[in-house]
Amino acid sequence: xxxxxxxxxxxxxxxxxxxxxxxxxxxxxxxxxxxxxxxxxxxxxxxxxxxxxxxxxxxxxxxxxxxxxxxxxxxxxxxxxxxxxxxxxxxxxxxxxxxxxxxxxxxxxxxxxxxxxxxxxxxxxxxxxxxxxxxxxxxxxxxxxxxxxxxxxxxxxxxxxxxxxxxxxxxxxxxxx
Length: 177
Fold this sequence. Notes:
- This protein is mainly alpha-helical.
- It has one domain: Up-down Bundle (Four Helix Bundle (Hemerythrin (Met), subunit A)), CATH 1.20.120.
- It is 74% helix and 0% strand.
- It has helices at 5-59, 71-94, 97-116, 127-149, 156-164.
């Protein structure tokens, strides 16, 4: 190797290193932007599902109440439920299965509330329990969404605590609901 080829090789290595570093930086920032885009869309979808679920619950009339029913309110209730069902389908495109299972449970329970609010004979004193159970399911969706939207754990120990539920005080054995 003569003295004239050494600067050329050094120049090529410098250019290759610069281009490689630029390419790596682009790939890393692209991955971060994709994760942020997904997180933003999931947050919007989760908020929409929880808001519509709350609105469905608010529109449901206590079936044990002897006041006559308003047909327009019944139509509005079914329209809100249809919006909730659509929002849950949108969430299925982005949400991981753990969150989607919780959302499906909430939507099914909301349907039971909507249908049940039309049959007062089935709810002799249990309507408040149904409302409380609805709130419990909404809290489960919020906990699952919080785990999904949180930043990745900094260590394996943090991952283990999140998996077992010790981080949020809801310790549970594996494969338990």
